[in-house]
Design brief:
Shape: globular
Strand content: 15-25%
Helix content: 25-40%
Bound molecules: 4'-deoxy-4'-aminopyridoxal-5'-phosphate
Distance between the termini: 88 Å
Number of helices: 16
Oligomer: single chain
Radius of gyration: 28 Å
């Protein structure tokens, strides 16, 4: 512990941490009368055991992380986001008013914020024009009060991986802590520096559930380092820093590693495609190759482009004010469809097309019942932007198809007991979408009213629609199996009936084919196309002989 002795604030090495009720006993207990909790279950449904305090040391989650990373739990800290751990690191190592830390700009802004909050000075060492830094330059800035060097790899906002030789040299030479923030490492196709913590006591790695693991809302971060430093960090953190909901969410997500892996692959391939497409746009001067889930681009008029995109409903990050980032915007890699629309709009900007031609036809509806909580945000006259999370991957896929083919902007969030019974969730989504469509179409003035379509590949669907306000469903769809994509086949009829009832649509749907998946795809596609046709604005009259 030679280096750590100089790194950890000496008074903390012997400080007695707060002892929480759950830490004080060993052995098995059945009756917990130690923490002044309510002994009855809470009225909150979803996660059981909420009346009890969470495990202050998050042992179960750490055990799972050990299985994935091979890092033992005495080398792990779990935080309320990795931001919390950044703050703990500064507090554990620095003397307010005396110590300093080093950052390499442009980089993540929280290193400065946590340092300054603790009255710790920040020294910045600028890298070269290509954003590459050298160990020698950084070491020149080190003095006897330097406690931490923050390195972000891949770096935010550049997307560049830190060169490992330079990092190794810094770790070896520095009599202080090297914090390597690997929030975006999953997108880099490299292992990162995590395993180095076994060889060096002055290296600390930060990772998070917020990016590749798609859980920014849960606030869950991990830090890895030497057990002695970890002991101090754990002793100065708030006792119950990670709540039961977040812990349950983290464990639950780790049960589905395949979703995480496939999403990472998808984002990487979207990034490569987007990098290529942005590179083809004349007005973009430089596209920086990225190892993260965002891309930095340099343009002549960053503020104008930023505002143009915003007027089109697309928000990116203006980074042009950061050191070495003149003219730069940082663009997060989105879904295939979001990226397509982004590229289209950037092209429109450089082609001189006027911005802000979107019509504001958005309707937001929320429906909460005992079983479900549904949010639908819909704009039938949009551009096909879908953001759908129903809990059923298959239903998500169907609604994305619907959004794409009807050019509807559609956000759906559904939470309910989908594992037990999808019936309520499917029905409530259809009801909420139907109500939203009904409200959006209003008095139906000036719309085409009727739609007809027959999409065909090897499956054929015929969908006719009258959106005039009367509700009826004629359903003649022949499936071969009882389930399609793990959704009971009968639920699709139920979906369209609930939607037609609440939207005021007369729908006549026929479909057949060899493959159930293709049949239902044709139905959603057909519904989307015929609805689009029917909702088209023709003139300002109601298309009816009955006035
Ligand atoms: N590090 C970097 C480099 C980041 O960009 C971010 C978030 N933008 C964080 C850490 C914070 O992550 P968390 O959500 O785990 O607090």
């Amino acid at each position: 512990m030679t280096k750590l002795k100089n790194i950890i604030r000496p008074d903390l090495l012997t400080m007695k941490p707060y002892s929480s009720a759950r830490n004080e006993f060993t052995g098995r207990a059945r009756i917990f009368l130690d923490a002044n909790e309510n002994p009855y279950g809470s009225s909150f449904r979803g996660v059981t055991g909420m009346n009890r305090y969470p495990d202050p040391m998050q042992y179960e989650l750490k055990e799972r992380i050990t299985r994935i990373t091979g890092i033992q739990s005495d080398r792990i800290i779990i935080g309320n986001g990795s931001d919390e751990i950044l703050d703990l690191l500064v507090r554990a190592t620095t003397m307010p008013g005396r110590s300093n830390v080093i950052t390499v700009p442009p980089t993540y802004g929280m290193y400065r914020v946590v340092a300054e909050t603790n009255n710790v000075a920040v020294k910045e060492v600028l890298p070269g024009d290509d954003f590459m830094f050298s160990a020698d330059e950084i070491m020149k800035a080190v003095d006897k009060d330097t406690r931490i060097i923050f390195i972000c790899s891949p770096n935010n906002p550049t997307g560049i991986l830190a060169p490992s030789e330079e990092v190794n040299r810094i770790v070896e030479q520095l009599d202080g802590l090297v914090v390597i923030d690997e929030a975006y490492i999953d997108f880099s196709g490299t292992e990162g520096f995590l395993q180095l913590i076994k060889d060096y006591e002055n290296i600390f790695i930060l990772r998070t559930f917020s990016k590749a693991r798609a859980m920014a809302g849960a606030r869950l971060g991990m830090g890895y380092g030497h057990p002695e430093l970890l002991r101090v960090l754990n002793s100065i953190k708030m006792p119950y820093n990670v709540n039961s909901l977040t812990l349950a969410a983290g464990l639950n997500a780790l049960d589905r590693e395949e979703i995480y892996r496939s999403q990472v692959q998808r984002i990487i391939s979207n990034r490569e495609k987007l990098t290529g497409e942005l590179g083809k746009i004349d007005g973009i001067r430089k596209v920086f190759p990225s190892s993260a889930n965002f891309i930095l681009v340099r343009v002549d008029k960053p503020v104008e482009l930023y505002n143009y995109l915003l007027a089109e409903g697309i928000v990116v990050r203006d980074r042009s004010g950061m050191p070495l980032c003149e003219g730069c915007l940082r663009i997060t890699v989105g879904t295939e469809n979001q990226n397509r629309i982004l590229v289209e709009e950037i092209n429109n900007f450089f082609a001189g097309k006027p911005a802000g031609e979107q019509t504001d036809n958005q309707v937001v509806k929320r429906r909460r019942t005992r079983e479900t909580d549904i949010l639908v945000d819909i704009n039938l006259r949009g551009r096909g932007i879908a953001d759908i999370q129903t809990g059923s991957g298959f239903l998500d896929h169907m609604l994305e198809l619907f959004a794409f083919h009807s050019k509807t902007d559609l956000l759906v969030r559904a939470s309910g007991d989908i594992d037990v019974d999808m019936h309520h969730t499917v029905e409530d989504i259809a009801i909420t979408m139907g109500q939203a469509l009904n409200e959006m179409l209003g008095d139906r003035k000036g719309v085409n009213r009727y739609g007809f379509v027959m999409p065909m590949d090897e499956s054929r669907a015929m969908v006719t629609i009258d959106i005039g306000g009367r509700n009826m469903l004629v359903w003649n769809v022949k499936f071969h199996d009882n389930t399609v994509g793990r959704v009971p086949a009968s639920l699709f009829k139920h979906f369209f009936r609930s939607l037609a009832d609440n939207a005021g649509f007369t729908l006549n749907i026929e479909a057949e084919g060899e493959d159930d998946h293709h049949i239902i795809e044709a139905v959603f596609k057909g519904f989307a196309r015929s609805l689009k046709q029917a909702a088209e604005i023709t003139d300002d009259r109601i298309q009816s002989t009955k006035y």
